[in-house]
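Notebook entry, structure prediction.
Reason for the run: the old model in the group folder had no record of what sequence produced it. Starting over properly, with the input documented here first.
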Amino acid sequence: MMLNQALTGQPVTVSQDFSTAAKEAGGTAAFTAGGASLAEGAKMTGAVGRMLQGEGRGGNALNGALGNIAGGLTADLTDDDKDVATTTWDGVTNAVTGARGNDAGHKAFQHLEEHGSLGGEHLSDQGKFADAAHKNSVGTGINTAIYEGGAGIETDMQDLVKKAQEGGE
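New structure, fully documented this time:
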């Protein structure tokens, strides 16, 4: 958020950005953990269950989109300055970047697993821990980079709409 603000000429609001990020992360985590737990507890094995657990490429991408939307809504609904139009812009950005981020991570990890650099049948507990740490940190980095790119595009698109509306008055 701060990088996007700096690059687009907006004031950088560090404490507000950390607060917003915490709300977004909380909403996303609640969806992700709650959805996976629901699918497992209810023994959902079909398409909905796979999506809630983030299984497969499509399920993973849809899970990312819905998780990002949940996080964004959590932040937007607790922010008095957000209106319906801004929340809608945010929802679209969250859906696209969440799906793309999860898909990019899925492809990267699948490639590593296919070449024996990640996973394996005979991993020790320490190896499993290292794999999980790698996946979490790399996945977070990929998602953050894609989200920031999407947020920059959203800002540019909002500015274009605003200029078009001002020009038409």
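Summary: The CA atoms of residues 30 and 63 lie 12 Å apart.
The old model has been moved to the deprecated folder.
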